[in-house]
Design a protein that fits this description.
Blueprint (H helix, E strand, L loop, with lengths): L3 H8 L14 H8 L6 H17 L3 E3 L10 E4 L6 H7 L6 E6 L6 H10 L2 E3 L6 H12 L3 E4 L16 H10 L3 E7 L9 E4 L6 H4 L5 H19 L10
Parallel strand pairs: 1-7, 2-5, 2-6, 3-4, 3-5
Antiparallel strand pairs: 6-7
Helix pairs in contact: 2-6, 6-7, 7-9
Length: about 240
Amino acid sequence: MENNNENKQENKPAVKPERTPIIPESAEMEAILTDNKRSWFYQLVLNLFTVVAKLVFFVRIEGKENIPAEGCVIMGNHRAWADPFFLAMCTRDREIRFMGKKELWCNKAFAWIARQVRGVPVDRGNVDMAAIRMSMTVLKAGHTLGIFPEGTRMKTEAMGPLQGGAAMLALRSRRPVIAVYIDGSYKLFHQIVVRVGKPIEMDDLLEGRVNKEACDMLTRRIEASFAQLSGGKSLPAGRE
C-alpha cells in the first residue's frame, strides 16, 4: 500500500530560497553615498521622465523655491512607482538619495540601478541601524535624503501613519525638513500637481534631546504640513 503522506510531500512545490539583497559592504556603500560626482544615469533617467511626465501628466510644481540650498530631508506621500521621479523634478540642482525597501536590492538589475542613483536600502520589518547610519552619512555629507515616511505605498489620497524614524533622522542630522505632496489621479492626460512646503519649524525641538517626545512632535508637524499642502486630502477620514 502506498504511503499517502510521502506522495503528498512529493507533490508539494519546492519552497524557493529567500534571495539575499545585493548590497555593497559598508565602506564601499559610504563611498557611493557620499560621492559628489553627478550620476549620468540619474540625470539621463530624470531628463527622460521629465519630458514624458510633462506630456502625459501635465506636471506642475508649486513651491520649488522652498527647498533650501543646503542638504535637507525631503518627505513625500507615496501612491505610485513614479513618486521618486516627481520629487526629483523638484530638485534638479542636486541628486536625492532615496531610501527604499531592501527587497528591491534582491534583483540584480535593480541593485545596479540603485547603485547608480545612490539609493539607501532599508529593512522595513526591523529597526535597521545600518540604514540609519547610511542615511546620517548622506545628510552629514551635505546631500539630500528622500524619504516616503508612510513606509509603503497607499491606494488613496489620504496618507497612512507616518513612521517615527523619519523625524528621528531629521532631528539627529539637524537638517531642514521639507514635505512634498503629490496630488493627482495618476491617470494619463490628467494633471499632477507637486506641492513643496516650507521648511518645517524644529528649532525648539533641537534645543532639547532627541527623544520619543521630540520625534512625535516633529511627526505631527510633518503631518500638518502635508495636510496644508493637500488641502486636507492627506488626513484620514474624520480628521479633516
